[in-house]
Design goal:
Elements lengths: L2 E8 L2 E7 L4 H5 L6 H8 L4 H16 L7 E3 L5 E3 L4 E7 L2 E7 L4 E7 L3 H5 L15 H22 L10 E3 L8 E8 L2 E12 L2 E8 L4
Antiparallel strand pairs: 1-2, 2-6, 3-4, 5-6, 7-11, 8-9, 9-10, 10-11
Length: 213
């Protein structure tokens, strides 16, 4: 069972990462899908996508959850029926979930690719990264920023939010492995802690909404 890594964020929040190496038949063992998710699973054309889908259910099982314990909002945000918070992500052969008893959380994993240079103007002012030493460093930083904005978008769970105009990530150095961010949307401001890590050419970012008051 290739559970790649677990991360204890705090007493009530943790992350589990899976490296998808098993066959689809192996991953199907012990997994019971709801009729709705079974239909969704059957409609997936990509075998890697199906294997990732199943591996996420194995990650959920580590926390004592089955597929029936999960439901989605009208905007596609996942929720657990017991009231705990969950966020889910996958990219190529890595999947991950973050689960918290007390905090609103979001998680994203991305493969580091040059493609992000071509789309960077859609989610961040590129001028902020011209001082970086080389193209590899720019790709790394842009991937972290994208992952941060994606994880915050997942926490917020509403349509209409612009990565470029509404989500702002404070500058950071790679050695910090963390930063802060905020969403300013429809007159409301919310603050977030952001953490990131890099491994095997991938970047994992997770956000935690700061409590007010």
């Amino acid at each position: 069972m290739p559970l790649y890594k677990t991360i204890t964020v705090n007493l009530n929040t943790s992350i589990a990462i899976w490296k998808v190496e098993e066959t689809e038949t192996f991953l199907e063992q012990g997994i019971r899908l709801t009729s709705q998710c079974q239909t969704r699973y059957n409609g997936m054309k990509s075998e890697l996508h199906r294997r990732a889908f199943l591996s996420i259910r194995h990650l959920m099982a580590l926390y004592g959850y089955e597929d029936k314990d999960l439901y989605y909002s009208e905007f596609g945000k996942p929720h657990l029926k017991d009231g705990n918070f969950i966020s889910i992500t996958h990219s190529h052969h890595f999947t991950a979930i973050i689960v918290s008893k007390t905090e609103e959380v979001g998680i994203d994993i991305e493969k580091n690719r040059e493609k992000i240079l071509r789309i960077s103007h859609k989610f961040t002012p590129f001028e902020e990264y011209r001082t970086l030493a080389n193209t590899e460093a720019i790709i790394r930083k842009l991937t972290i920023v994208w992952g941060a904005k994606e994880s915050l978008y997942k926490i917020y769970g509403q349509q209409g939010i612009s990565f470029l105009h509404h989500i702002h990530v404070a500058d950071f150095s790679f050695s910090d492995t963390q930063t802060t961010a905020e969403i300013i949307f429809e007159g409301q401001v919310s603050q977030y802690h952001v953490h990131f890590m890099e491994f095997e050419g991938f970047t994992l970012v997770y956000g935690i909404r700061q409590k007010t008051g």
